[in-house]
Amino acid sequence: MSGVFGSKVKRKEDPRLITGQGTYTDDVKLPNLAHAAILRSPYAHAVIKRVDVSKALEHPSVLAVFTGKDIVQKIGPIPTAWLPPDSDIKTTAHYALAIDKVRYVGDGVAMVVADDLYAAKDALELITVEYEVLPAVVNQEAAMGKMAPVVHEDAPNNVAFHWQAGDATDEMFANAPVHVSHRFVQQRLIPNAMEPRSSVAQYNASTGSLTMWLTSQNPHIHRLLLSGILGLPEHHIRILAIDVGGGFGSKIACYPDEALVGFAAMELGVPVKWTEERRENFLVTTHGRDMILDVEVAGEADGTLTAIRVHNIANMGAYLSTAGPGVPTILFGLIVPGAYRFAHAKVDVYGVFTNTTPTDAYRGAGRPEATYVLERIVDLFALELGMDPVEVRRKNLIGADEFPYHTALGLEYDSGNYQQSLDKALGMVKYEEFRQEQEELRSQGRYIGIGCTTYVEICGLGPSQVAGAVGFQGGLWESSTVRVHPTGKVTVFTGASPHGQGEETTFAQIVGDRLGIPIDDVEIVHGDTDRIAMGWGTYGSRTTPVGGNALAIAVDRVIEKARKIAAHMLEASEAEVEFQNGIFYISGHESGTVRQVTFQEVVLQAYLAWNLPAGVEPGLEGHSFYDPVNFVYPFGSHFCMVEVDRETGEIAILRYVAVDDCGRVINPMIAEGQVHGGIAQGIGQALWEGAVYDDRGQLLTGTFMDYAMPKAHFFPEFETAFTETPAPQNLLGVKGIGETGTIASTPAVVNAVIDALRPFGVRDLDMPLTPEKVWQAMQKGSVSA
Amino acid sequence: MGMKETQVTVNVNGKLHSLTVEPRLLLVHMLREKLLLSGTHIGCDTSQCGACTVLLDGRAVKSCTVLAVQAHEKTVTTVEGLGTMEQLHPVQEGFWEKHGLQCGFCTPGVMMTAVGLLQQNPHPTEAEIRHGLEGVICRCTGYQNIVRAVQYAASHTETSAIDSEVAAPDIVRDVIEGR
Questions:
Q1: CA dihedral A499, A501, A502, A508 (to 10 degrees)
Q2: What per-residue confidence (pLDDT) applies to A781?
Q3: Given a cut of 60, is residue A445 above it in pLDDT?
Q4: What CATH code is carried by the domain that includes residue A712?
Q5: For residue B11, what is the domain's CATH number?
Q6: 553-582 in A: which are within 8 Å (CB) of B?
Q7: Which of A160, A388, A773, B44 lies 20 to 30 Å from B91, alpha-carbon distance?
Q8: pLDDT grade for A346, boundaries at 50, 70 and 90
């Protein structure tokens, strides 16, 4: 239907979700379903001397107990699927259950399967494990020290990999008129999707086929990896991820517990379910961020930025998670120059093993960290020069006439209008008025501040050739099948795999727009490896730019074939037949003439096949395997305004303004929702969230009581707006929107707080900016308004 | 394990159930595992996230912190009993209209919390809504559209309907009067 693309359409997925009829993995019930529970190491680093499961086995409800030694011959190690090139990466073996050593609190030691969930958990307490506790190391910089405990014998100094890109020499910084350097810490975050991870497995011994329901962002990747781990042929594994309750990167990885559940179902001949508890989620589901970043910029006295260099020590945790190594290297490193015209850039990254939970993607994955250090150091650079931070940005932003723009690190930014975005945001903010008010309030002893981010993001992962070149062990194209049924209704099969992004709606809008049919006539099928040819899933804001364009191409192939049939029906040549709003017609006779046929009439003829043109096969289905030629580069300008309470150090967010550009917007309501959620998570990092380990490797923030998840009353109403610069390199003109908010908001908030604290001489504070930290900083500083 | 089982009689969404359960069985597990009402979700184990919120005799409670035996001879309303596709509850309508959900996992609990909130305060301000949602966590939406959804529900609900729609008006009155 014309007008459906770009309009605010209510979500098609909502009816089942607001009536309690969704199918999340833990909702799956099967006859004779057994329940698994996993015994986890209470120590961060220890040798397993002995495991005694005999008492657990005596429990009347227990079907089996497995230890690392029991299964080592049967389940292969969990692989890492991102191996950055030229990084000397150490892919140490990660077994589904620890065999002789545990390496973080939460490392699996044994699994119990029982016919009842409560009994399975009771039986865990009947297992005795004798440990020899070893010293642990949790900080990545400390882990590189000569005397540090060794996490893996085959990784000297705990270095998992060392990756570099770009070039910027010492002289560029030493000889620069302006040179600013600073160490920033990106604290560790815990993704906390609201749905805990879960797996259900059912094995049919007679056919040798395994069906698994999984909390997965990428079911086909899971099938591929589990095929190798379990030694089952790929065509005998079916992965279903029907409704997935949020992921934020934490449901990309293939986890040991998933392999264990599949194995147990095969071994025991009964279906098996395992669902993590929240405290287990805190311990074993991948964490994000956790980087120590030394950053330097060089520039001219007029505010021109010339070179940037970042040294990143990234905490990878105890094992390299599926996509983990790609985050601090490729996803972080390549976007370090951001939206500015840096002539030179250099990135130097160490990935380090520690006795902590493995890290992997968390919303934004590398790009929030890069944007944070860049946007913070640009503010420090402005401070050094005594320039307004907005003016420094304006001076250095890549101009609208400079695209495609080639960066110092080899990326080609596809398109942008950064100045327009900044101007629009400034207009919403009323920047000058705020600065005046700030002066006035300072004289009254009140401290307000404003901070901004002018970001560019790399997403829409990505061209497969590039994926290969940067060590991703897979392709990054996407598949789509558009099956038109005889009545003209449409089922779409897509390899993108949403978990809250509203793709059942936006994808139906793409189809409805192109075919001229109501979106209620379109069903989007995702998350089922038996129904969908192949796909690489949803992460890196790739669903719309890659999966969406795959879909558009497949729809156009349907139209192409339908046009042949329509031309035959209209007794015209194909070239004469136009298609609009669901009607094939001959040019010049748009309406009210007999020289037209509807899409539905053509579809029916395609299936009846009574009178098809020569060489045209019956049926109507479009397929595509779309590999993008480039990434896409959304951008925008975010502003945050805060007030810091002089007495308590508490921060009140006065306003939050976001202007984003993700190319053409398919559904403004959904795009806005993505921005809201991203901003909330980004502000969460700036002000409240942070995983804390003690020096023995115990996670002190292991429940929602201890880890500060943002609540509704923490936020003001976000003010959001869009500019639309169509993406030039894809059919739909779209870019990703899922991560922009997280990328932009964290530095905007911190810049605002530091701006508010300027009279106290505060240059930087480590996140999260808790009232205590802010209050201490004000106590130390002297007011010099 | 060998724990003495006990009898529970409970009215869930207007239907009476009699079950034999372990005394330690949580209400949320009774709903999900015994009655197969999987709309009520479990998001944490420390009573913070509110995904498991249901109405117990008309009051919003976290069903992961209530034992099944505590619901004996009481009335439970879950998301499955809130409204039907033919006749959605105003809160459900609000969540659909205002894009109050993304992944949908916390949604049943957040909606039941909103129902409880609107019973106590049929015309809340934005600040009151945000405060009233203190007991739930949503990771997707940034809460803004949840607030809009609750505002929508408030403006589309007859005050009299709020009192009558979900059981036990006397308890509702207790709550309103702060008892």
A1: -100
A2: 84
A3: yes
A4: 3.30.365.10
A5: 3.10.20.30
A6: none
A7: B44
A8: very high
- Whether residue B96 is contained in a domain is answered as yes
Q: Taking CB atoms and an 8 Å limit, are B48 and A61 in contact across chains?
A: no
A·B CB contacts under 8 A: 191
* Domain final residue, candidates A604, A626, A648: A626
Determine, yes or no, domain membership for A217. yes
Last residue within a domain, chosen from B61, B81, B101: B81
**Phi, psi for A173 (deg, rounded to 5):** -90, -45
A609 and A655 in a single domain? The answer is: no
Q: Is A328 inside any structural domain?
A: yes
pLDDT at B159 over 80: no
- Which pLDDT score, from 0 to 100, does residue B81 have? 97
Cβ atoms of A149 and A136 within 8 Å: the answer is: yes
**CB-based burial label for B34 (10 Å; 0-12, 13-18, 19+):** middle
Chain B contact present for A106, CB below 8 A:
no
- Per mean pLDDT, which range of A31-35, A112-116, A198-202, A593-597 is the poorest? A593-597
Does B139 contact A709 at a Cβ distance shorter than 8 Å?
yes
Angle at A11 between CA A365 and CA A502, to 5 degrees: 15
State the pLDDT confidence band at A1, using cuts at 50, 70 and 90. low
Which of B80, B137, B145 faces A676 most closely, judged by CB atoms? B145
Q: What is the pLDDT of residue B42?
A: 98
Q: Please state the rounded mean pLDDT for residues A221-228.
A: 98
Q: Which of A570, A591, A626 is where one domain is finished?
A: A626
With residue A390 as reference, give the H or E element that holds it: helix A389-396
Task: Provide the residue range defining the domain that includes A606.
Answer: 477-626
- CA atoms lying within 13 Å on the CB side of residue A474: 23
Regarding whether A126 and A259 lie in a shared domain, the answer is yes
A119 interaction partners in chain B (CB closer than 8 Å): 1
Q: What is the DSSP letter of B26?
A: B
Which of chain B's residues have a Cβ under 8 Å away from the Cβ of A653?
none
CB A96 within 8 A of CB A33: no
For residues A354 and A208, membership in a common domain is answered with: no
The upper half-sphere exposure of residue A762, i.e. CA atoms within 13 Å in the direction of its Cβ, equals 28
Structure tokens at A84: 């950055």
Residues above pLDDT 70, as percent of chain B: 87
Quick check: A15 and B111 CB within 8 A? no
Please tell me whether residues B77 and B104 are part of one structural domain. no
Mean pLDDT on A420-434: 98
* Stated length of chain A: 785
pLDDT mean over A500-525: 98
> Total domain count for chain A?
3
Same domain, B40 and B20: yes
Tokens of A403: 């695209």
Contact B127 A713 (CB under 8 A): yes
What is the average per-residue pLDDT within A88-94?
Answer: 95
Q: Is residue A182 part of a domain?
A: no
Q: Would residue A381 count as lying in a domain?
A: yes
Instruction: Calculate Rg over the CA atoms of chain A.
Output: 28
Residue B1 lies inside a defined structural domain of this protein = no
ipTM above 0.95, yes or no: yes
CA distance B46 to B67: 14
Same domain membership, residue A591 and residue A667: no
Amino acid at A405: Y
Question: Which residues in chain A have their CB less than 8 angstroms from residue B51's CB?
Answer: 194
* A27 part of contact set with chain B, CB < 8 Å: yes
Domain that holds residue B100: 90-176
Q: Hey, what amino acid is at A512?
A: G
Q: How many domains does chain B have?
A: 2
pLDDT per residue over B52-109, tens digit each?
A: 999 999 999 999 999 999 999 999 999 999 999 999 999 999 999 999 999 999 999 9
Q: Which residues in chain A have Cβ-Cβ distances shorter than 8 Å to B32?
A: 26-27
Residue-averaged pLDDT of chain A:
97
Q: Is the dihedral of CA A717, A723, A728, A732 positive or negative?
A: positive
